[in-house]
Specification:
Order of helices and strands: HEHHEHH
Number of strands: 2
Shape: elongated
Distance between the termini: 28 Å
Amino acid sequence: MKQNKQLNISRLELIQKGYVNQKELAVFLDVGKKKAKVVYDNICADIHHNGKSVDVLGIPTSRALDYIGLTEDDIRRFANDEKKEVINYDG
């Protein structure tokens, strides 16, 4: 893990976008590009297996959330905590 101190703030921004490409997935999962490619390819295969196609924008962030086992509400809560930490650190 890269230990991004504002990981959930970054995740929330990507969730609001709705889709992630491989590079963004690496940020979302806090992993390197090789691991992100494996996960991305697996999610794409699952999408195809379900008879759907992968959007040109990438995979839905809901799939990335499923992969890490968290909900959008979890990410929002964690992001709010991170924002409070930044404010407390700056203040």
